[in-house]
């Protein structure tokens, strides 16, 4: 038991070091892209460049997540969650639906969503420590508040910029499939697995697989 705890502590230490080093590197390398995107967003409609939303992090702690704004300034999303969810979020539920033709999405927004560029500001979340490079994607509180005890397992680790579910379907998978993959990550996480997921993420992003 002691050896297991010691290994977990070492893995967490190196994971945090990797998050800081690669997070800072990723932020610096993508800064030119982010400046261009920020300029395009501002020129399109004059609205704010960033979109800040509350998400659920490790152990249910709430935190602000940063994204490039992809929706129109006056867009109003009508989402109703919780109907018939007394036993947890249904396995058939899909958070992101649609084919990218949502009229509330701006022209720039459509492009940065397909390419995942809208998520680049989250390198800041990784560096400050409320996210990791790899982990289950952070969900909104309106959904996590309905998690069953079993589903809360995915909240035992820091949410990630990318994860096992993201390299195996992204927005195309159901909640049940996502939960299964996220729990698999929680049970088998390691530095080696994180590096493997990061390599697969590059392929997924470049091919736009599962993007909406």
TrEMBL record:
Residues 15-206 form the Bacterial sugar transferase domain. It holds the Pfam family Bac_transf. InterPro entries: Bact_transf. The keyword ATP-binding does not apply. The keyword Transferase applies. One of its GO terms (molecular function) is phosphotransferase activity, for other substituted phosphate groups. Belongs to the bacterial sugar transferase family. This is Glycosyl transferase. It comes from Listeria booriae.
